[in-house]
Amino acid sequence: MARFIKDRQAAKGQMPGSLVLIGTRKMEHPVIQLMEFDSDNLEEKELDSIEDTTACLQSADMSWINIYGIHDLAMMGRLAEIFQLHPIFMEDLMNTDQMPRYEDGDNYDGIILKMLKYNEEQKKITAEQITLVLGNNYVLTLQEQRGDVFNPVRERIRNTKKRKRLIDSDYFTYALLDTIVDNYLIIIEQFGREIENLEERLLTNPEKTMVQEIYRLKIELSFLRKSVRPVRELMGHLMRSENALFKEKYLTFLRDLNDMVVQAADAIELYSSMISDQLNIFHTLVSNRTNDVMKVLTIFASIFIPLTFLAGIYGMNFEFIPELGFKYSYLIFWIVVILVGVGMVIYFRRKHWM
Q1: 138-143 and 62-68 as β-strands: parallel, antiparallel, unpaired?
Q2: DSSP alpha helices (H): ranges in 160-250?
Q3: N or C: which end of the chain has fewer CB within 10 A?
Q4: Residue 122: which pLDDT band, with cuts at 50, 70 and 90?
Q5: Under 8 Å between Cβ of 53 and 46
Q6: Which letter does DSSP use for residue 100 in this model?
């Protein structure tokens, strides 16, 4: 499967709003986790069925429903009915290649974006689609598989002293988004260090293997750009929406989050420009090295041209060449050859060609 765009063959010819998974199934069975809490109490558990989430809609407590695995079409259809999610939003949710977007629903705010991870062994970025649905007293998150960057938020919930603001579903959604964007910046920082270290190596000792490294970084930055840049538009739509469920007092947090997204996008563009410059520098250094070799060879060839000319004259097989009968002809020939050679070397040095 292509990395930058996924196979959409399964969705071909389907009606708009149809539930079709675009992407790969990453779990055997979906897992539904619930964290229900207020300022004093917390309950964590795994739910047996999607039907168990209906109680969260009537609960006075804040509910975080986290679902790992979105491949179960029957479960996803029932989820849409319980939380009254629009069919088109559900279609985008099931498309794991969906660009980050914001959905202004009748009784919910829907946010689709990418959660990024950096594989140290393969030196590649992997992206997982994550969906956040904000309601009045709940936040619903849907992920493709287990494992995420939300553990710091879970620890804040478990700490009674740090839980107070998280009781508001809109602030809780901000906290999740903030964690995702922080992870963007961490990954970009990792790539930034690699690119800056590569530049030092490139200027001191350029090697052929660096081309592969430059192209790898260039591809990963393109993947980062594809995942992060649309989040700027998402944040703009979210802050401009008149029907968004975010309270006025939390808009300052959203603006700060938007600044972080802009910073991340600008950093990606900066490093993309740097890696392109490094590629140009590499080609220039290799070209200069080749030119230096050709320069030396040309100088040697230029020195030997007049010497070859002299040797050619006295190598002719004519019977009457005046100098052939002279006793010191051979010695004089070598003196002339040496003087011509040394003279040309001196001339080249004065011209700074050597």
Answers
A1: parallel
A2: 169-204, 209-240
A3: N
A4: confident
A5: no
A6: P
